[in-house]
Amino acid sequence: MHCLGQQRKTVSWLEAGKVNNSSKAPFFSPSEGGSSEPGCRPSFLFFSLFKAILRYRRKRVYIILAAVIFSTMEIASKTVAADINPFQLNFIRFLIGGVILLPTSMQVINRKNIELNRNDCIYFIATGFLGIVISMSFFQFAILYTMASTVAIIFSANPTFTTPIAYFLLNEKINKKVMLSLAVSLLGVFFILNPFGIHTDMKGIILAILAAITFAVYSVVSKMRVERYGCVVSTCFSFLAGDIILLVLMLISHLPLFATYQQGNITPLLVDIPIISGINYSNIAVLIYLGVVVSGLGFLFYFMAMEKSSASVASIVFFIKPALAPLFCLLILRKLLLRTLL
To answer: Residue 2 gets which letter from DSSP?
Structure first.
């Protein structure tokens, strides 16, 4: 039976399209829930809109998951900062994250028939150096010198740098809403810096700003080839490449030259950096959490959001984080929040 109100003698534009494209398979088959009658099929526009909604929801899920996980990063790092050297902590957490993602990465490489060449290796070394060695080291040192909630909020300002960098390197558009959000973010950082007051932890604040800037560069550079490798492969091999560089630097720190030069010239944290020592039953659970959840899943969800959208859209993670991280600090670390942070 035809749909109600359909005129048998009148050929609609939809029916005409059906006649002209009779060789094509129907958009919805009866087995898929659609009607087999010619006048009752869902329109192509409706189905496209439905798929777009699903994609949009998927991006939102990735962004929310990454925001929640990243909001615990400073807290977990702060709890072990007194026992674990900052470089050692980075090495351990990203080694765990990289190893966790490695089996899936190899499956993706085989499925996509990706042949890694010298340029790919250089790319992973560059992203690993930017993200793991430089940005995350600035981040860990910042946590040593100031409150975890302060570092969390300043680091969350990295979209302020991500957006203009993505505009020049990736040709991503910047609209008025984005500009307004960036201005508000900069204003928030300005209040945290409190230039009219005196900070005893200014060193930590400067390190947090450097971490945010270098993480923005890392995010944009990672976006350049995420379509070739996929987010899992890009995240995994960047972690492992950065860890190899960290291991080399940690081994170099044990040379006698560093011990001699250390007196009054460089911080003791850069000399005789341990690889395993300092790990015990009281901090092993936190290290595993940082490696598996924060480094593995957190960065994975972040780059999945970026893969499905853009570097600017994925950076929404860091607009959500300032609302969650101080709350987690208050609940877990029992740290009272400064008025400038509020």
So the answer is: P
Give the separation between CA 159 and CA 186, rounded to whole angstroms.
10
| CA pair distance 330, 24, nearest whole angstrom | 61
Residue matched to tokens 């900052």: 86
Each residue's pLDDT tens digit, 257-310: 766 655 555 567 777 888 888 888 888 999 999 999 998 898 888 888 887 777
Q: Would you give the DSSP letter of residue 252?
A: H
The pTM for the full model equals 0.72
Amino acid at 54: L
DSSP label at residue 264: T
What's the pLDDT score for residue 184? 73
pLDDT tens-digit series, residues 101-141: 999 899 989 998 988 899 999 999 999 999 999 999 999 89
Q: Are 219 and 143 in contact (CB under 8 A)?
A: no
Q: Tell me how far apart the alpha carbons of residues 75 and 143 are, in angstroms, rounded to a whole number.
A: 9
Helical ranges in the chain per DSSP H: 13-20, 44-70, 73-80, 86-112, 118-128, 136-145, 148-155, 159-169, 176-193, 202-224, 226-229, 231-252, 256-261, 284-289, 299-308, 311-314, 317-328
Number of Cβ atoms within 10 Å of the Cβ of 110: 9
- Mean pLDDT, range 91-100, rounded to an integer: 93
- DSSP per residue over 34-74, as a string? --SSTT-PPPHHHHHHHHHHHHHHHHHHHHHHHHHHHTTHH
Annotate 186-195 with b (16+ C-beta within 10 A) or e (fewer): eebbeebbee
Residue with the two structure tokens 């740098």? 161
